[in-house]
Every structure is written in structure tokens, then in C-alpha cells.
């Protein structure tokens, strides 16, 4: 159920309806193609008219996204899409507003706007395409690149420790936090579905392969030979286990703050944690987010956190609604009254 | 409060400066005196002057806060150059302000604060009240604090609260001296302390004690009257520039029939506009206190994209941060109002002091060829109309508009002849709802032949789905384009569409009609320039005055006007930014006259300078 303030269309739309007439110009083999196709295929499911859908982006490869969607769209400036989208969303509750951003755009130059959009719980669906590299500027390390990353700007290896985007979002009081992968369309769409149905900010990190400057960054999670031992699929209400035969389990060791991975066969008295994204205390989702370091050793995907909190849009609209009780006449009459308020005097 | 038994003298004008420590309530005292004076029908102009520190160390020179009010029985243009009366609540206030007083001025001092310790804080070895250094003035030593405490003794208020009421004692005394009607002050106190009846009583009693003191003490032998000014008939209220700007934005929303969305980040001296607008949600106004200046304008631009009247309010440092988003708004060709209440820079500069040094930034402070419209109000009440004009241009011509106010007009006040709502322009524009191209296509950059504005097709409009962005756009279709000829065309078109916005011709004030010297100003210097010109004319020296409201584009008749005079003088509170534009554009040898002290020009400063130009060429 998407936000009730967004009108639905009775017209049955298809993926084709969401394709714009612009030629898509990402590099051949870029992970962005898969995400675009997945989004275009998914959008009709929402039942929202194209004219009520807006994609706002910043700068970077991912931020070309709006040009390819046959909806309303704005390709704005570096890092500022969440701020622009906030003004749009807060003033237009009838719109479904999506932000498309990348690791540099959202976490480096635009870090401030991202955390404040999440804190306010603006009704935005934020898709962060994380390829752990600057693509459009041709291959510098990004705020999610692993420590020691050798790039054009860091020939001796980067000395910056990376952000964990999900930990960051959770620290910023995000109410919906999820992760998915460009190559897994089914999973990607399931996460988008959950995000679209969330009232408030939905933050979705999408691991996206940059085959030019950081090829294979997520290969360990994609290669059939390795992925089962590294990828943890979170499913609501299900025990968190992974491995081809479920040979690994995520547990909460007694006395520990966080979560750990154990071989299922050696659990003893412990039981795997049963996933519940609706746990109000963000410590749980945060602990999940800490299972993966930049080596992607054990990486959960799916919805980490999904809790209800009034959206900024809702609160702003409520204030405007409440203020209508003070409406005493036509706008011109009210304006006249306002100008004449206070200590006035008349000269005849 | 009985009838005065003392001699009454008529004055045509008076300048009073209330000065004290930041915590002494001098702004409030000045404000109340101004309001009483407004009720009487005098013309008024005020100048608050306060430190950026909320509470600088008590009793020190940096902590002095003052409020000057000029009132007269004729129309006045400035808050006055030098006070006839100084109320000094402590030695620091005396020391900081003494230099501005003409010989013979009245000085009312609070003797209770002239302790050895307080004197030492500001470097007085001997009390100036006793060493004869004030012999040239009419000194009135008043034990303000102890008399206030004495007057409130029976009310049982805490000593601290009694002491704090001393500003009302001072107000009572000055209200008596100048025969001010005080009903509005009593009402104000009842409102302000509605939840503390004890404080209402204390402040009323302090006011009364001050009034009675004036009436009974022999030190004040004369009481003054300033008759109402002959002003245009109508209803007036006293208004500061920031308040007028906020009301202007409310009016702009009403007259545009659009919701207003203000994105703002707190910054001195612009924050009051945010505070004021946040009270008027019933007009469909949304105010958002953003996480930073960039987000503030970003949100305003997002709202404008969605069909609102988008506004952001700030001061110079904020405009610097907003530059990239302003450029985006120029590329997107969306309406946006950017209000810069200028303060002294660079960097943090002097946040509570005035300056006009953001003109270059407003005109040119962006990357690429990024023209927009710039306008500047000339006085506090003019801020109301300037806000509507900024919104009108933004909406009709689909462009960002920068409004350059400054600290002087923002915090200064004057009587405002309230407009009839029906006289305000209808600034509404229509959203585009139908395709404008062949075969039902929508061309987001197909321009209106008259205004050169592109369609404002807001999300939610079926059939007009389109994408806009900061990348160069092809003419008409708005598609991304790297075509060299298209870029050249678009750059020139963006320049032309701003340059061709029709703005009113500039008026010349030249009652003698034979002036050879023209003084050209812009923004808040209107008052002091006008006062200086009047003074010169009274002395038989002809001079013409013209004042720019529209700085981009400039009025079409400006070149002709400038060339009609032998000499053009341009006073500015910067190092000659407008003069530079005028010289470059009109190839005339304009004479800049500059002051960057953080204070407005005095009329006397300009009168001296202009006298020299008129006499000596």
C-alpha cells in the first residue's frame, strides 16, 4: 500500500510506459542498466500514474537515471538531490518522489542532506547505487572504497576508512533501511516493493558493478561458487542462516553487544536469530549492518529495518491543515487584516 | 499622571539614543518609545545598533547596545546623524556614544552604574560625571536603578526583577519629557508579561515612577512637544524592513494565488523573516528550517519545481553557499526568490553591521554566464513592495531573483502607509497544462514569445512528463545537448531574457531643474542621500537624485539620464561596486564615494561630500 495521499491510476501500465525516448548512455555492461530495467519493470506494479512519479538525482553516473524514466524528473547538482526532493515532497503529498544517487553523491558531497532527509523521515525512496568508486570522474576512490584502495588519486592506496552506508543511515534515524544487488532482479524488486510501501524515508543501498573502474567489486556475492558462503538473505520472521546447506547461522552471543556468525553445527545451546525488521530498537538493524566489513565476508541483503514513524511530509501537511482553522475570510481579506494588525494610527 | 506644571517647548525634530549594556533592554525601550511616537503621528526613522554577541561581558564597550530614534513634525529620511539626547545606562554606554553627541546635547546617565569597578572596565580613571569633562553638555544624573528598586519596594518583586525594570523607568522619564502617549506601552506590558502579573505591575510601576520623576524633579525644567507630521492620509503602522519583507512575501503568495515555500537556515540579520513567516501558515505558507544554506535553497527550488512560490532568505555568506543552486535554477528556468539581507563581510565579518558589498556577488557571483534579476528596497517599508516585485519577476519570467536588503533597512523602522490590498498587483501566472508541440509533444524549452519564459509544467500534470536538469539543454526540446551552436544560442538567450525584462524607468528628483550634478544610489542609501540633497537645496545648491531599485536589468532610460549631467556621484557602502558597473556599461566618469564602516552614511557626511562636488565640480 503506497502512501494514501498519492492518487492511483486505473490505467494498467507496463514497463514500456516508463521508458523515455532518450538513448541510454551508460558504459556497455554497467550495472545501472540492470537496475533501470528492474525499476521500469517494477513501477507499473505500484499503480501510480506516471505524472505523479518524480525521479530526482544529483550528479554522477547513477544520476543520469531520471532522463531514462518517462516520468517527471530532475537531474540536479552534486549531492543536493535529497534537499531538492525534500522541498518537492513536503509541498506535494500527491507525488511519489524517488531519489537516485551514488556513493560519492550521497555519502561524500551530499552526506549532510542524506542524513537530514533520513532524520526528518521525508517521504522519499532513496536508491543509492554503491559501486565503491567514482565513475563519472574516471576512477577515484569513493567514501565506500576499501581502505588502501589504489586508484588514480591514491597510487599508494587510500588512507580513508570507508562508510558502511547502512550503519550510517541507521545512525541517522532512518525508518527503512535495505540492501540489494543489481544483478538479482527478483530480490531488487522485492526490496523496491517494500520501500515503496514504506511511509517516510526508505533507504536502499544497491550494490552496483562499475565494470570500467571497479569491475568485480561484488563478485564474491555474485559468483555461484562463492555467493552462498557470503550472502545472507534476510527474510522477515525467518531464522538467519546461510550457506548452501544452511551451514552458517547468525546468533546473538550472550553478553555480546552485536551479532556473530557461527557454524550451524556448532551452535550448542544457541539458536539462530529470527529476523524482525520491525524491531523498534535500531541496535538490532545496526548489528546486522556490522556483519559485513569492506571485505564483504558475510553480507546481509534484504530489509534490515522497517519501522513506522510519522513522515516529515505528514507533519508539515498537518500543520497546514490545522492552520486552516484560523482562516477567517478570503486571502485578500486575511492579508488586509494581517497588514492592519498591531499598533496602527490613522491620519485623516 | 497629572498635567505638567512645567514650561513646554515646541521642537520640530528630536533624535534620542538609548544606550546600555546588551542585557539592559535598550532595543525594547527604543522600540516602545518609537511605538508611542508613532501613535502621536510624528514621522519616525530608527536605527538599532547592537553587538553580535548575545551577552558580551557586562559593562564593557563591546557589550554596548543602542537604539536611536529620530522623530519630527515633517517627513524625515534618516534616523538622524547625531543624538540630541543620550540615555546612558552605564559608563560603557556613555563612553561608546559620547563622540556622536553635538555640544549641548542632553545626557541622562544612570549614576548607580558609575561605580569604581564599572568605570575601570572602560578605562575611566576618574568619573566623567565629576571631572568636568561633560561641562559642554546638559548632564542629568539620575539614580535610575535605586529609584526603580525604591519605587517597586512595596510590590514585593525580587530585587533582580526590580532592577531589570529600570529600562521602563528610563522610558517613563523620556515619555514624560517628550509628552508621548503611553497607552500602547501599558498594553504592551500587559501582553508581554501576561503570565506574570507581578512583572506587569513592576514594569508599570517603574514606568510611572520615571514619568513622575520627570514631573517632580527640578533637574528637568522643560517638557517638549513635537507636533504630528503632515503625512499622507491613511492608516499607518511602524515597520522594520525584515517584518515588511515577510509581509511582502505573504502578500506575494496571496496575489500570486500560490502556496509559499520558504527554505531558510538561521543567519543574522535575516532570521527574523523566517520567524515572521512561520507564524502565517494559514496563508498556505510552509517554512522549513533546513540543515544548511544549500539545503534551504534546494528545498525552495524543489517546491518551485512542484508549483510553489519558492523563497530562500539569507545573508551574504549564505548566498555564497547557494551559488551552485542559483545556477541550477537559472538553467532550469524556474521561479525562485533569494533574499540577501547584506551584512559586513568578508567571511563572518560583522554580522550585525550593515554593508552593500554583495552587489557584485548578486550580479556575477556564479560560474558560467548565469544572469538573473536583482532588485533592492530603499527603505524599511519599501521592503514590502520589493518582495512582491521580486516574486512578480520570478514568476512571470521564470527566473531566480535576488533581493538585496541590508542590515540597515532590515532592522531600521519607519511609518508605513498601509496599502489597499486591491492596489497590489495581481502576479498570478498559469501553469502549463497542455502539450505545446506538434503531434501532442511537450517542449519544455519552447518559449513564450513575449516574456521568453518557458512553460511551468508541474509534476502531476498528465501528458507533460519531462526531464530537466543542469546539463545544457537543446532549444525547445530541453534534451541534453553538447552542440556548440546550441550552447552559444542558449547562453545568449538566457542573457537576453533577463536583459529584456521590462523594468520601470528611473525617476529623477530635481526640483531646481538646473542641477549639473546627479547623485545615483541604490538600496538603503536612499534616506541619507535624500536628506543630504534636501539640505543642499535648502542652502541654494541644486542637486539631482536618482535611485535604482532594479539593478538587473537596469532601467532603459538610465544611460540617457546619466549622460544628461556633468557629474554623476555614486555613494555606496562598499568600495564602488555599482560605480564600476555604471562606468563600464555607460562609459561615464562616475565618481564613487564609499564608506565601509558597518554603519550607514550620515546625511552630514554625504552633504559635505556633495557640497564639494557641486561647488568645485
Secondary structure: elements and pairs:
The complex is a heterodimer of chains A (348) and B (617).
Chain A: H1 31-46, E1 53-57, E2 72-75, H2 81-91, E3 96-102, H3 103-109, H4 111-120, E4 124-130, H5 165-171, E5 176-181, H6 185-196, E6 202-207, H7 219-222, H8 227-230, E7 231-233, E8 241-242, E9 248-251, E10 260-263, H9 282-289, E11 299-306, H10 312-323, H11 331-339, E12 344-347
Parallel strand pairs in A: 1-2, 1-3, 3-4, 4-6, 5-6, 7-11
Antiparallel strand pairs in A: 5-11, 8-9, 9-10
Chain B: E1 7-11, E2 13-21, H1 26-40, E3 43-49, E4 64-72, E5 85-88, H2 91-98, E6 106-110, H3 116-121, E7 138-142, H4 144-151, H5 159-164, H6 166-177, H7 183-192, H8 197-216, E8 222-226, E9 234-240, H9 241-256, E10 260-264, H10 271-277, E11 285-289, H11 293-305, E12 309-314, H12 316-332, E13 336-342, H13 359-364, E14 373-375, H14 382-397, E15 400-406, H15 407-411, E16 413-417, E17 467-469, H16 484-499, E18 508-509, E19 517-522, H17 526-538, E20 544-548, E21 550-552, H18 558-563, E22 567-572, H19 577-586, E23 591-594, H20 603-616
Parallel strand pairs in B: 1-8, 2-5, 5-6, 6-7, 10-11, 10-12, 12-13, 13-15, 14-15, 19-20, 19-22, 22-23
Antiparallel strand pairs in B: 2-4, 3-4, 9-16, 14-21, 18-20
GO molecular function (chain A): magnesium ion binding; oxidoreductase activity, acting on the aldehyde or oxo group of donors, iron-sulfur protein as acceptor; thiamine pyrophosphate binding
Domain Thiamine pyrophosphate enzyme TPP-binding (chain A): 59-206
GO biological process, one term (chain A): cellular respiration
Question: What would you say this structure looks like, in words?
Answer:
The complex is a heterodimer of chains A (348) and B (617). Chain A has 348 residues and is an alpha/beta fold. Chain A has a domain of 214 residues: Rossmann fold (3-Layer(aba) Sandwich). Chain A contains eleven helices and twelve strands. In chain A, the strands form two sheets. Chain A has an eight-stranded mixed β-sheet with strand order 2-1-3-4-6-5-11-7, sandwiched between helices. In chain A, strands 8-9-10 form a three-stranded antiparallel β-sheet. In chain A, helix 1 packs across helix 6, helix 3 packs across helix 4 and helix 5 runs antiparallel to helix 9. Chain A starts with 30 loop residues before the first helix and ends with a strand. With 617 residues, chain B is of the alpha/beta class. Chain B folds into four domains: 220 residues, Pyruvate-ferredoxin Oxidoreductase, domain 3, CATH 3.40.920; 187 residues, Thiamin diphosphate (ThDP)-binding fold, Pyr/PP domains (Rossmann fold), CATH 3.40.50.970; 73 residues, no CATH class; 109 residues, Rossmann fold, CATH 3.40.50. Helices cover 36% and strands 20% of the residues of chain B. Chain B is built from 20 helices and 23 strands. In chain B, the strands form five sheets. In chain B, strands 11-10-12-13-15-14-21 form a seven-stranded mixed β-sheet, sandwiched between helices. In chain B, helix 2 links the parallel strand 5 and strand 6. The longest helix of chain B has 20 residues. Chain B is globular, with a radius of gyration of 27 Å. Chain B starts with 6 loop residues before the first strand and ends with a helix. Chains A and B meet through strand 2, helix 2, helix 4, helix 10 and helix 11 of A and helix 1, strand 9, helix 9, helix 11 and helix 12 of B. Strand 12 of chain A pairs antiparallel with strand 9 of chain B.
